Amino acid sequence: MISLTEQKKILMVIAQENFRDEEFLGPKKVFEDSGAKVTVASNTTKKAKGVLGKKVSPDISISDVNIDDYDAISITGGGGAKEYLWDNKELQEIVRKANEQGKIIGAICIAPVVLANAGLLEGKMSTVFKNEETVKILKDNAAKYRDKDVMVDGNIITGRDPNAANKYGQAVIKALK
């Protein structure tokens, strides 16, 4: 386990419905076990529900996020990411601002599409849950797609699927050190 030398603040973004439980819970545990403080954001602060039934009460709504308050942002995948996060203009603006500030930006499963839609994956090595639609979106946005568990390119970290959740979380922590 990687331990941080100082407490870092990580914003975890989940869809209101159908976020992937393991892609939230795995990295969250890695983050907290390393000493990071996690804040959960979603479209609203009403209880969010994962694909496998996990219920989470978000701390903040995406519209109230000030990225200056965080060292990293991690966007959770799952089917709800397509419906609630892919085209969320506020979230895209948050990740663009985080990128301008050189913060660590992570996304797992189908959530890397948010980064592609925000223009952050151009020329970046990245991965995504492999299906025709997600891979096409990454490539259409000039990402260098790789079918790997986790890809790290500068401050951008992408994870492929639930099986990569812990490895992805550890990559985010390593990048924060």
What does this structure look like?
By secondary structure, the chain is an alpha/beta fold. Helix content is 33%, strand content 24%. It has helices at residues 21-33, 79-84, 89-100, 112-117, 132-140, 165-176; strands spanning 9-13, 17-19, 37-42, 48-50, 55-56, 60-61, 72-75, 104-108, 125-126, 144-145, 150-153, 156-159. A 7-stranded mixed sheet has the order 6-3-1-7-8-12-11, sandwiched between helices. The protein has a 3-stranded mixed sheet with strand order 2-4-5. Strands 9-10 form a two-stranded parallel sheet. α1 (21-33) runs parallel beside α6 (165-176). The model has no long low-confidence stretch (mean pLDDT 96).
Question: What attributes does this structure have?
Answer:
3-stranded mixed sheet, alpha/beta, 24% strand, 6 helices, 7-stranded mixed sheet, 177 residues
Largest sheet: 7 strands, mixed
Compute the number of strand runs.
Answer: 12
Distance between the termini: 13 Å
Give the low-pLDDT segments.
none
How do the helices and strands follow one another from N- to C-terminus? EEHEEEEEHHEHEHEEEH
Provide a compact summary of the structure.
With 177 residues, the chain is an alpha/beta fold. The chain is 33% helix and 24% strand.
Architecture blueprint of SSEs:
Elements: E1 9-13, E2 17-19, H1 21-33, E3 37-42, E4 48-50, E5 55-56, E6 60-61, E7 72-75, H2 79-84, H3 89-100, E8 104-108, H4 112-117, E9 125-126, H5 132-140, E10 144-145, E11 150-153, E12 156-159, H6 165-176
